[in-house]
Amino acid sequence: MINSSFYTENLSVDTENLIGRVAPLYKKYPHQMEPQPAYIEIDEYGNVSADYSGEIGNAEPADVWHGRTQHLSIYPYANGDTLAEFLNREGVIELLERIHAGHTIEWDGNDMVGILDDDAKAAHDTLQDMIDCEFSAETEWNCGRVCEAGDWIYEDYSIAALIEAGSVEDYADEFEPDESEKVEIDGDLCDAVAELTASNLENRDDIRNQMSDDDALEAAQILVDYDSAYKPLLEKIKDDIEDDEDDDS
Q1: Residue 115 in contact with residue 107, Cβ under 8 Å?
Q2: Whole-angstrom Cα distance, residue 177 to residue 141?
Q3: Cα–Cα distance for residue pair 248/178, rounded to 1 Å
Q4: What residue spans of the chain are helical by DSSP H?
């Protein structure tokens, strides 16, 4: 059994955010091409945890910049249970203990900064090498699968199924992965359903044989019920249908 949090004489190790998660350190912000950097950290008090950076670009929190908190980088796709088990290992704990034991906080004339002695530096380098070896693109068995929400729903999506579900939220629930699929969804499934629906409706001239006017109107109304920002799309569909009827008369 993996400990979600535990203590040694000098350390407090918290892995609660990792247990049962496919890829808990994965986070990609909108308009960014790559996921956020992920890390294992040990602060000046001996608290150990793992997370992703909340900073965009190369920015770092002051405590990390000044070395008061030590970071070890890790592949952001690391599987939560595997990482928690890694942090429970006796050899890993011994290295963390050495880092903490040789980590002092000193005034450098401008700021309080963290300094590692030679043994702590060696332990830090050894632990970083272990992390790089066990969690990487080449060690898929230790990593989770991440799929963008739009890609996840694309193959099985249909306007008819959305209408049958009756709402964006209820239809999105049908795409929630179960534990056996071992996948982390990047993005919001509701937004993905809404965006794919809007795309189909905006290009309905290309798929008229697959969508009646009544279906288009009902699907557009479901979008408006989800987000009023889609109201212009509903009005456009109504106008298009009226124009078609005028042309036929």
Answers
A1: no
A2: 19
A3: 49
A4: 62-65, 80-88, 90-101, 118-134, 149-154, 159-165, 168-173, 189-202, 213-226, 231-248
CA distance 63 to 139: 31
Sign of the four-CA dihedral 150, 152, 153, 156? positive
Q: What is the pLDDT of residue 194?
A: 97
Q: What local confidence, expressed as pLDDT, does residue 30 receive?
A: 83
Rg of the chain's alpha carbons, rounded to an integer?
A: 25
For the chain, which ranges sit under pLDDT 50? none
pLDDT at 46: 96
DSSP letters for 152-212: HHHTT--HHHHHHH-SHHHHHHTTPPPGGG-EEEES-HHHHHHHHHHHHHHTGGGGGGG--
Q: Report how far residue 5's alpha carbon sits from residue 13's, in angstroms, rounded to the nearest whole number.
A: 5
Burial-class residue 174 by CB neighbours within 10 Å (0-12, 13-18, 19+): middle
Q: So what's the pLDDT on residue 134?
A: 95
In order of 75, 163, 194, 195, 236, the CA distances from 229 in angstroms are 38, 19, 11, 12, 13
Give pLDDT, residue 210: 67
The conformational region for residue 121 under phi > 0 = left, psi -120 to 50 = alpha, else beta, is alpha
pLDDT at position 206, please? 59
pLDDT computed for residue 33 by the predictor = 87
Facing residues of 14 across strands?
5
Structure tokens at 122: 């060696």
What is the distance between the alpha carbons of residues 53 and 124, in angstroms, rounded to a whole number? 19
